[in-house]
Design goal:
The protein is mostly beta strands and 271 residues long. 5% of the residues lie in helices and 40% in strands. The chain has helices spanning 9-16, 24-29; strands at residues 38-39, 49-50, 56-59, 62-67, 75-79, 87-95, 100-109, 118-126, 136-139, 143-146, 150-154, 160-165, 177-184, 187-192, 195-202, 213-218, 224-235, 255-256. The relative contact order is 0.22.
Amino acid sequence: MTRRSIATPLLALALMIGPGHRSPAEEASTPKPPEGFQAVFDGHSLTGWEGSPKYWSVEDGCLTGKADGTLKFNRFITWRGGTLRNFELRVKVKVSSRGNSGLQYRGTERPDLGESVVTGYQCDVVANRPDYNGMLYEERGRRILAHTGEKVVIDPKGQPWVVGQFPLKAFPPGIWHDYRVVVEGNHHRHWIDGHPTVDVIDLDEKGRKLEGVLAVQVHVGPPMSIQYRDFFLKTLPDDLPMIASEQAAIPTDARKVAAQGQDSPRKPDAE
């Protein structure tokens, strides 16, 4: 992870406010990361993050996003602690029954497209479609790269192919779930509550991104809320090897990942 001085003067001042300025109650409520991880959200302020207070706040010790149904485009709040390359991310997530959000990683900020717009890879958080919840999506890019429950290889021309499948589970909204994202080189894996949701190898050198920002999202559509807590990040070595085409053969019977708008909802598998 590359540390960069990218904060505004006001934000830079906020980032300088260290633990010594916190009250005993704040210290007690600060999340304690597992060994090897750092907390990217302190549990009581938006210090280290940048986004519109119209959509983002801290409620009940959680990073909270709310939208009233009038959004014209998706809005993000971005972590200012550096950029992500190879990493493991763990976070507890609770989304409302009609909510739609996502964990944006290796993202690119695009102020030319609107306020607080970030493009790039995303672990989706979707309340009402099990085959979207935990999928790999590319915001304003190649779009659906793998539905939840799919093991995928993206070929050098950018076409995603389903080469395997995981059982599809439903994770009900309105309660906390553990999301985990591990990205090593061009290998992306997501889990919810310890269950694998996608496994993707990205061979598209032109389309893929190897470094970028961390952000979370509020989405256009119905009124929604999203909450994140126990938000922990582990930095992995920058020089992890890339998986080559000859190591990720696409079987002759592989099928294309159905494009957004052409995909039918997949029902959860019986347990």
